[in-house]
Write a structure and sequence with these properties.
mainly alpha, Growth Hormone, Chain: A, single chain, 2 domains, 16 helices
Length: 411
C-alpha cells in the first residue's frame, strides 16, 4: 500500500473476482498470453543482433549502422516508460496492453517493408516506445489476475519470456534470416504478434486504470520507502550482467572457448529457465532469501570467471550457475518493485524498465571503455564489485524493499 502522498485519493483497482482466495490455482492461459506478449517485445528488441549481415546487405549500410537498430530501440524504451505510464494511468490495462502489442506489430511491419535506413531507424525507435509500454504494464496487469499470495510466482512465470527470447527466439530468428531473409523474418514476428493480439483480446478480462482523481504522482512514488533501494540493487545487478554478457566472447578467450560461444549461451539460457522455475516454486515464501542467494551465487560465478579463467570446465560451470542465478534475479527484482510500489505499482514498474534499459546500455559503454583501456581481465572483478553493492543494498533493505516477510501485492 502506498503512502497517501502518492495518490490524491485511494483508488479501488480491478483485481481477481475473489481477492481473499487462498488457493494455489493460477489462470495459466491468461498468463501465457501476457508472457507471449513480453516474449515478442523482447525478441523484437534483440532480433537485429542475429540478422546484422542480412540487414546491412539489404539496406546497403555497414554493420555498425545496422547495429544501431538495437541501441535505438533500447533508447526508445528507456525514455518512454515513465512518461507513458504517467499519461496513460486512466486507460484500462487491457486496452493499454493491446495498444502496446498492436504498436509492435505495426513497427515490425514497417521495418520489414522499409528500404530507407532513416525510416527503419525511426520505426525501431517507435518500437522501443511500445516495448517500454509493454514491459511497464504486462507484469502489473498479470498481478490483477491472481490472488495476492501468488504474486511472486506469477511474476516468475512471466519472466520466462526473458530466457526463452534469448535461447529459443534469437537463434530461431537468426536461422530464419539465413533461410528466408530478414524482411520475411520480421513479418513472421509481426504475424506472431497479431495472433497474440487476438489471443489477449479474447482471453483477458478488463482491468481498470486509476480513476482521474486517484492518479499516481511521479516524485512521491520514487520516494516510497524501499523503492530506491530496489532500483539501486537492480541497477548494479543488471550492470554486472550486461558487462559480462555483452563481452562474453572475449571473456572466454583464455579458456579457448571462443569458438563455443553459441553452445555456452545455450547452456546459460537453459540454466536461466531452470532458475525461473525455481523462483516460481519458492519465491512467494522466500523472496528475500532467494534474491540474496541468487545475487551471492552470481557474485561467486563472477569471481570464478576471474580466478579460473583459463580452465574450460570452471568457466563452463560458472556460466551454468550464472544462468541459474540470472533466471532467479530478474523475477524477484520485478516482484520486489511491484510489492514496494503498492497501489503505484504501474509507475514503479516503469521506473524499473527505465533503470533496466539504462543498465544494459551502461554495461555496454563501461565494458567498451574498460576493454579498450585495460583488456578483458578486470571484467569479472568489476562485476563482482557491482554485485557486492547490490547484495549490501538488499541486505540493508530489511524493512522496506526486501522485507523478511513479503507483503501482498495490491491487485
Amino acid at each position: 500500500m502506498t503512502s497517501p502522498s502518492c495518490l490524491e485519493t485511494e483508488p479501488r483497482l480491478a483485481g481477481p473476482a475473489n481477492p481473499t482466495d487462498r488457493s494455489n490455482r493460477l489462470p495459466l492461459a491468461k498468463l501465457a498470453a501476457l508472457t507471449f506478449a513480453a516474449f515478442i517485445a523482447l525478441l523484437t528488441e534483440i532480433m537485429p543482433a542475429g540478422l546484422l549481415p542480412q540487414i546491412s546487405e539489404g539496406l546497403r549500410i555497414s554493420d555498425s549502422l545496422s547495429g544501431q537498430f538495437i541501441a535505438t530501440t533500447g533508447i526508445g524504451a528507456m525514455l518512454a516508460a515513465i512518461p507513458l505510464m504517467l499519461t496513460t494511468q486512466g486507460i484500462s490495462r487491457k486496452r493499454l496492453t493491446l495498444i502496446a502489442a498492436g504498436g509492435l506489430v505495426a513497427m515490425n511491419c514497417v521495418t520489414a517493408l522499409s528500404d530507407q535506413y532513416v525510416i527503419t531507424l525511426g520505426a525501431r525507435f517507435l518500437g522501443g516506445i511500445f516495448i517500454g509500454l509493454n514491459w511497464s504494464v504486462v507484469f502489473v496487469y498479470a498481478l490483477r489476475l491472481v490472488p495476492p499470495h501468488l504474486a511472486a510466482r506469477t511474476i516468475a512465470i512471466m519472466t520466462l519470456a526473458i530466457p526463452l527470447a534469448f535461447t529459443l527466439g534469437a537463434p530461431t530468428v537468426a536461422f530464419l534470416g539465413k533461410i528466408i531473409g530478414w524482411r520475411e523474418t520480421f513479418c513472421i514476428v509481426g504475424l506472431c504478434g497479431i495472433l497474440d493480439l487476438m489471443w489477449m483480446a479474447i482471453a483477458l478480462p478488463d482491468a481498470a486504470g486509476h480513476a482521474r482523481q486517484a492518479k499516481v504522482r511521479l516524485v512521491p512514488t520514487f520516494f516510497l520507502p524501499g523503492l530506491r533501494a530496489v532500483l539501486f540493487a537492480t541497477l548494479t545487478y543488471v550492470l554486472a550482467y550486461s558487462i559480462l554478457y555483452t563481452y562474453i566472447a572475449p571473456l572466454l578467450a583464455n579458456a579457448h572457448l571462443t569458438e563455443h560461444v553459441d553452445s555456452l549461451l545455450l547452456i546459460f539460457g537453459g540454466a536461466s529457465v531452470l532458475g525461473v522455475i525455481v523462483s516460481a516454486i519458492w519465491a512467494d515464501r522466500w523472496l528475500r532469501g532467494m534474491i540474496l542467494g541468487s545475487t551471492l551465487l552470481f557474485a561467486a560465478c563472477a569471481i570464478a570467471l576471474g580466478a579460473w579463467n583459463e580452465s574450460p570446465s570452471a568457466v563452463t560451470l560458472a556460466i551454468a550457475f550464472w544462468g541459474i542465478a540470472y533466471g532467479i534475479g530478474p523475477a524477484l527484482l520485478t516482484a520486489a518493485t511491484s510489492q514496494t510500489g503498492g497501489e503505484a505499482a504501474d509507475v514503479a514498474q516503469a521506473f524499473l524498465v527505465t533503470v533496466w534499459n539504462l543498465s544494459v546500455a551502461g554495461g555496454g559503454v563501461i565494458g567498451g571503455f574498460v576493454l579498450s583501456q585495460f583488456g578483458i581481465a578486470p571484467f569479472p572483478w568489476i562485476a563482482a564489485g557491482l554485485l557486492a553493492l547490490s547484495l549490501a543494498t538488499i541486505w540493508l533493505a530489511k524493512s522496506h524493499g526486501f522485507p523478511k516477510a513479503a507483503k501482498a501485492v495490491p491487485t
